[in-house]
Amino acid sequence: MLHHKGIVGIALFMEIFLAACTTISTRTPEGDQVTMNEKEFAIYVEHVFRHHNHVLNELITSPTMAQGVADSDEDDVADAEMDMIRTCDPLNEVVAAEAEQRHASFSTLMKLADVVPECETLTRELEILLHPPTDLPHKSAGDSTVGPTAKTLAPPPSRSAP
Fold first, then answer.
1. What is the pLDDT of residue 153?
2. Phi and psi of 150, rounded to 5°?
3. In the predicted model, is pLDDT for residue 59 greater than 60?
4. 15, 26, 71, 136: which could form a disulfide with 147 (CB 3.0–4.6 Å)?
5. Is residue 121 within 8 Å of residue 50, measured between CB atoms?
């Protein structure tokens, strides 16, 4: 039988551990540290998964990929796709587990804080390869823009959950 102080110690440890789990410290794709509560992180994870899934669907159905692209571009896209798939695997494992109404492993869940921002970065990079800037508009008199800005090439940086 555990001594009363032992039970109180375990209870305090569990309370501290559970309190620490209510916030998630992660980073943005730009590398800035950010802290989110569980709900914000869940929304962020879903946002990244949906974007990742959208880009994969685009890759599969892309007319450019069906018609073929230059060999060097095709190699870049294939490499970016493999990097993204490998990096985003823990995210996909968690989503698949939830879809099957089971729990992902604790170790997989613990990886998400690091994996999700990297997955978002690699998804953005692949998306840019699929939609490279083509014809840059010529600057006309009175026009201060030369071509697409970073905002048109990739989604805005995220500071917290979208």
1. 36
2. -60, -30
3. yes
4. 136
5. no
CA distance 147 to 137: 6
Query: Which DSSP string do the residues of the chain spell out, in sequence order?
Result: ---HHHHHHHHHHHHHHHHHTTEEEEE-TTS-EEEEEHHHHHHHHHHHHHHHHHHHHHHHH-HHHHH---HHHHHHHHHHHHHHHHHHHHHHHHHHHHHTT-PPPHHHHHHHHHHHHHHHHHHHHHHHHHS---SPPPP-TT----S--HHHHSPPP-SS--
pLDDT in tens, 68-77: 555 557 888 8
pTM as predicted: 0.65
CA pseudo-torsion sign 90, 48, 83, 60 = positive
Q: For residue 125, what are the contacts with CB-CB under 8 A and spacing of at least 6?
A: 80, 84
Q: How far apart are CA 32 and CA 22, in angstroms?
A: 20
- Show Cβ contacts of residue 122 under 8 Å, excluding neighbours closer than 6 positions: 80, 83, 84, 87, 88
The number of residues in the chain equals 162
**Residue 60 confidence (pLDDT) above 70:** yes
d(CA 162, CA 157): 10
CB 97, CB 104: distance < 8 Å? yes
